[in-house]
Structures are given as structure tokens and as C-alpha cells.
Amino acid sequence: MKDINLLPDDIRTPQEPVKSEKSGVSTVKVVTLVIAVLALVGVSLVLPKVYIIMQNTRLDIINNNIDSNKFDEVKAVNSDIVKIKAEISKKNGIVIDIDNKNIMVGQIVNYISNSLTKGCTLDAIKFGDENLIIEGTTIDPMSATEFISYISRVDYLRVADSTIELKDGKYQFKYTFDIARKEGK
Questions:
Q1: CA atoms within 13 A on the CB side of 178
Q2: Spatial separation of the C-alpha atoms in residues 108 and 137, rounded to whole Å
Q3: Which pLDDT tens digit goes with each residue over 7-17?
Q4: How many C-beta atoms lie closer than 10 Å to residue 159's C-beta?
Q5: Which terminal Cβ of the chain has fewer Cβ within 10 Å, N or C?
Q6: CA-based torsion, 9, 10, 12, 14: positive or negative
Q7: For residue 119, which phi and psi values (nearest 5 degrees)?
Q8: 27-45 per-position pLDDT tens digit
Q9: What pTM did the predictor assign?
Q10: Buried b / exposed e along 105-129 (16+ C-beta atoms within 10 A)
């Protein structure tokens, strides 16, 4: 047979005791929270200083290693590299200066020989630092004038002086040109 319990359900199951809830925050929670905040602030203030001290210590160790004798050869090589770079820079300046003053002498001589008019002969071509002197003879002054007009078409040659004289039945000419360098001088 079966047991029949006629008690109502709320009485049949045992009930847990009712806890009374407090409306405020407990003192233990407040103290724990204050300690956690203080610890966080303390760590955030101390941690960067500790990191800086550690990095300074590492830097001192590295500097001591660099100053040791085992890196003397590297220091010597670095010193040589600095000297070589200075020398290359100095020579590069000279090359740039030469390039800025560079005129193609072969091209000028070729242009001059191609510009010779019929009856003109060249006696001398002289190059100076800043000028070019062309001397020659011709059978008539018109061909000498035509010759100078051809040469003066070169961009970096400017006529500075020109003379044509009659000697021994031939006209002797002497033309002086100023040389304008690439840099505009």
C-alpha cells in the first residue's frame, strides 16, 4: 500500500530560513575596495619608475660592453669609415666643381673646324680658364666675319674681342671668346 500524505505542499517540503537583506554596503566590502584602489594607484606610480631603473641598468651594461676592448677593432673601422666618407665628400665636391666648369673641348674644336669657311686657315686655338682664343688667316675679311658668326652661335661662347688685320696680302684674324660655364658664370 502506498503512503498518502494529506498535508499541503508548502508544509510538506521543508522551507529555508528567510534571510533579511541589509540595505547598505558591508564594511568588509568597503575596506576591500579601498585597499584594491590604493594598491592599483601605488602600483601605477611605482611601476614606471621601476621600468626606468631597469632600462637605465641595461643601458649602463651596454655602454660598458661597448667600452670594452673587444670592440676596439669596430671602433677603428668606424673611425676609418668616417675619414673615408669625409675624403669622398671632398673629392665629390671637386668632381662637381669640375663638372660645373666642364666644357667639351673636343666638341668646341670639332665645331670650330666645321665652321671654317672657304679660304680660312687656323693658326692657333688656345684655351684658358675663362677664355678661348682663335687665330688664323683668310683671303678676304668677309669669310673671317662669316667664320666668327658661326662660332658665336655656340651657347657658352661670347665674343670678347675680334681683330682682323691685313698683313702680307692675307687677312689675319684673332678672336677672343669668353667661356660661360654650365653654372652660368
A1: 7
A2: 19
A3: 777 676 666 66
A4: 13
A5: N
A6: positive
A7: 95, -5
A8: 888 899 999 999 999 888 8
A9: 0.44
A10: eeebeeebeebbbeebeeeeeeeee
